[in-house]
Write a structure and sequence with these properties.
The complex is a heterodimer of chains A (about 375) and B (about 120).
Chain A (H helix, E strand, L loop, with lengths): L8 H34 L15 H10 L11 H17 L18 H9 L2 H11 L3 H32 L4 H6 L6 H4 L1 H14 L11 H4 L9 H25 L9 H4 L1 H25 L5 H28 L4 H28 L10 H5 L1
Helix pairs in contact in A: 1-11, 1-13, 3-5, 3-11, 5-6, 6-9, 6-14, 9-15, 11-13, 14-15
Chain B lengths: L1 H34 L28 H30 L1 H24 L6
Classes of the chains: A mainly alpha (about 375), B mainly alpha (about 120).
Amino acid sequence: MNTLFGLPVALDALIRVLIIVSVMTVVVMGLIYVERKVLARFQQRLGPTRTGPMGLLQSVADALKLVAKEDVRPTNADPWVFELAPFLVFVPTFLGFVVVPFALAWSVRDLDLGLFYILAVSSVNIVGWVMAGWASDNRYAMLGALRAVAQSISYELPLVMAMIAVAMVADSLNISEIVRGQAMVPNIVWQPLPFLMFFICMLAEMNRPPFDIPVGESEVVGGPYVEYSGIRWSMFFLAEYASMFIMALLGAAVFLGGSAWPFGEQLGLPWQILLTVAKAGLIIFVVIWTRASFPRLRIDQLMSFSWKLLLPVSFAQIMVNGLILVYDLPYGMSHTLLAVCSAAGVLFVASAINRSVTSPRPRPLLIPRSEAAR
Amino acid sequence: MEHLDQLFGNYIAVFLATIAGFILVISALVGNRLLAPFSQERSKGTSYECGMLPIKRAQTNVGMRFYLYAILFIIFDVEAVFIFPWALSFVAIGPMAYYEMVLFVGILAAGLAYAWKKGALRWQ
């Protein structure tokens, strides 16, 4: 194994993890600032301007305020579960950083099952959300937690299926190998539909608008973390922004060619890091753009979108990929077929979304019409 | 043996990252304990309910629809775990492996279609 300066394996891992910790802290603070600033520009406001030059120190000020805030725990809350929940929200999210690549030969560890690992680990934090919602002994929190579970498990499946579809084309689960395989053409050209599904499911997994039903302020006043205050509350947000960073890096690496395309190998490390930052930044920008542009979904729309559209389509994508790849077609022909079929899938999903937006179905009645009449 | 070393080298990083994550949260909490004011007052401990005192505990019964989705999720998630190794090896095994997976996914798709027809996917 290649270690930094030939250090022992454990020490090397420790140094890399520490680098990640500092990078993550800085990036998360930056992300909060960038989100507020970009969102403000979308709404023709200025955003933070008072703290430091152009408001650059806003996140630092926020962090200081949160640390110095009193930590209140409701009397009825289950103390152990309540206190443990922020750990279980943050730690699994943080574990995702072990495999995401920042440059061609730079991630903390190059796990052979990297893609599988990151999907497995990133879905654990839902346990923390449920613990937070259940232990708070607050109805809003409980409702929010239930919604969070329903949403998270529904969108987990299309996310996994989209990743499997790409892994079939890339023929690997090792994220670095997937990146290297895209030196000529990024995967999004062959697999646009999985990228679309990845993006949608990423929004849902992070509880970002328009999928912010579990944490919607106007419905459940913040959801599972209503009762949390100060630094404990900020752990949920730290986890949210950290997972946004991870997902953007993952999407950049798996679909957009990561640090390999174009000319990643030839132009050296600075160019690779620039590529990673640019692509991850693009994904993050689109996430913020989505937040500025779309209204929140209703929960029945949310569930049927995943189960009735994304899941069947993702199965179809896997089966079509398999059919094309299993017969030994020449490279150009098989990949052209893949691209055409996947693009057709994108058109289908887009038309289905368009149809549901232009002719929406009424909200299902909670009480059947016959009983309501009585 | 070398393979084991490799595995150890890889997953020691995961272990260290877990510890680092816990230390991050703990250090934030300790900083909070040192910096934040603290005062005991009875009304601070009530749960937030827009000004009213809540009636009864919040940990009540859960709607049936959540269980339906949970059951469906477990079925499909287990299936996803089966598909992962298949996705990397079916080309080497040949068309036979592909058609076996078509059969497998077909059965599951029939299950999904049945649940759909029965109205399990309808949110009500």
